[in-house]
Amino acid sequence: MHRKHVTPSVWAPPQLSMRWWPVFLRNLLVWRKLALPSLVGGIAEPLMWLVAFGYGLGALVGEVNMGGQQVPYILFLASGSICMSAMNAASFEALYSAFSRMHMQKTWDGIMNAPVRLDDVVMAEMLWASYKALFTVTAILGVMLVLGISQSWKLFLAWPVLWLVGVTFSCIALIFNALAKGYDFFTYYFTLFLTPMMFLSGIYFPRTQLPDWLLRITDYLPLTAAIELVRPLFLDQWPSNVAANFGLLLAVAVAAFWIALALTRKRFRA
Amino acid sequence: MSYLLHVENLVKRFGENTVVNDLSFHISPGECLGVIGPNGAGKTTTLRMCLGLTTPDAGSMTYFENLSMPEEALAIKARLGVVAQMDTLDPDFTAEENLLVYGRYFGMKDRDIKARIAPLLEFGALTSKAKAKPGELSGGMKRRLSLARALINQPQMLMLDEPTTGLDPQARHLMWKRLQTLMQEGKSILLTTHFMDEAERLCDRLLVIDHGKKIAEGKPRDLIAQHLEPDVVELYGQGALALAAEDSPLRQHAARVEVSGETVFFYTPQAQPLLIALQAWPHIRSLHRPANLEDLFLKLTGRQIRENA
After folding, report:
1. Picking from A53-67, A92-106, A190-204, B127-141, which range would have the lowest pLDDT averaged per residue?
2. Is there a contact between B59 and A113 if contact means CB atoms under 8 Å apart?
3. What is the pLDDT of residue A184?
4. What pLDDT, on the 0 to 100 scale, is given for residue B309?
5. Could you tell me which residue, B291 or B242, shows the higher pLDDT?
6. Is B25 within 8 Å of B33 (Cβ atoms)?
């Protein structure tokens, strides 16, 4: 009866099942109680930016030249900032809220005493944070439609793209969630990673303004890929390089999820 | 003999440190097994391995005769109820929502879960708190809600990690009453505890572990009879320590003498001669009592406080 066990590598492929669903439902049930304040908080800030910069700064800037086409600044800004809203909503949920559940409240430990694997819990958190991103951008899209910033039917195609942006940034954020010792750690992620990306991905000004070497680096930022896909849809055009940009978001999502899962498994083994 | 859980030759090392060393034990249907041992003895690691949260280096853990951990962890956990040392209740949910959400993790239908909520709250003496959130509950109520939550899937076996640590005496007694009710219903329980009165009251059998090894196993009364003299006379206060000296006239009446802090323990098969001799020191305070599990625990694991405890 002397059986040897080998602790499986934390890098083993994800073992996923539909057991993530009740965990997702749990988060939904908590959020339903706080939906209204969360909705107001989630869309008020991006809309204030849009009004202040779009109308205010937009009056000074006038129009932006987009490869021959003159685009009103508010439309330029709106099409970029909605990608940022997806990124921020997903990041906040997968960092602060997920960390509360994982570390402070020990909700994950409770769940894993039931027949649910850690892999499914991480999957649920990822899908939940992407859902929050989708919910936030849907509300903002609604307001933009009402304001008449863009009324292209192609906005409906932007919707699934923005969900994918939420997925990608949830996956990245879960890496930092797995490494965190406390909430303070997330400040690094925001100031060293998300904020520079926000300024370099072409939300506020066309990336062509950047020096050549920097421009080339920003080609590979996931937020750049998101904006390259979403902005043309706002302008009632078709995006170019669809496969490359989709591929980048998807590849980052898969790689980041795998890394996040491995680091979370390691954390829960200790 | 069929076992609900049969653990054989379990080994776990963390680096150079062997935390669990060739540990074997079993739980029979309807039995309550208590695992006791000092802090750092390997109790928590053993429990974590039994729950599939840590993979052992060697050994086997077989549940319900044919399911082995960790390979069939999900099938096993579907039939277990777990109360962890730290409450993991959802602070945003009411008591009944906590039960509902937890039942869903087992794949139960909402209708089936809802049918169990009222009786489980009643069992936990929490009926009036159905709409209260954990933050509004006392420590004892939270533990009983955790216990009720662990019963949502009608488990065959319960794993309780220090179920009454931090509770006041009333809350502990109510918890014990509930656990005894469960045992009368035929549930099997594995529990860890630091309280010897709890172990003596609840457990059919005890497993004493230290340094990751089993150092004793058996029924509480049998273990005491096997390892200890039946009577203890404790002396304390001014001058008590002097009576423990090698040349003390009291020594001849005791089989074993131990000193802990300011207290001297005389272990003896017959207390009467010792008590009579003790009358020569009327100012010494003394207590004559039967030997108990605490004495056994301290004899087996030592009176020293561990460095990492």
Report:
1. A53-67
2. no
3. 93
4. 45
5. B291
6. yes
Could you tell me the fold of the domain covering B5-224? Rossmann fold (3.40.50)
Point out the residue among B60, B82, B102 whose CB comes nearest to the CB of A3: B60
Determine the 3-state secondary structure of A15 from DSSP. coil
Q: Is A16 at the interface with chain B, CB within 8 A?
A: no
Q: How near does any CA of chain A get to the CA of B220, in Å?
A: 29
CATH topology of domain B229-290: Alpha-Beta Plaits (3.30.70)
pLDDT tens digits for range A147-163 = 888 888 999 999 999 99
Q: What are B94-125's pLDDT values in tens digits?
A: 999 999 999 999 999 999 999 999 999 999 99
Judged by phi (left if over 0) then psi (alpha if -120 to 50, else beta), residue B125 lies in left
Task: Tell the burial category of B286 from Cβ atoms under 10 Å away from its Cβ (0-12, 13-18, 19+).
Answer: middle
The alpha-carbon gap from B77 to the nearest alpha carbon of chain A, in Å, equals 5
Distance from the first to the final alpha carbon of chain A: 27
Cβ separation A110–B102 shorter than 8 A = yes
> What is the mean pLDDT of the segment spanning A29-49?
82
What is the mean predicted confidence (pLDDT) over A92-108? 95
User: How is chain B split into domains, by residue range?
Assistant: 5-224, 229-290
**SS3 (DSSP) at B26:** strand
CB-closest option in B59, B77, B91 to A115: B77
Q: Which residues contact A144 (CB under 8 A, 6 or more apart)?
A: A50, A78, A82, A150
A10 touches chain B (CB under 8 A): no
The answer, for B178 touching chain A at a CB cutoff of 8 Å, is no
Report how far residue A159's alpha carbon sits from residue A82's, in angstroms, rounded to the nearest whole number. Answer: 10
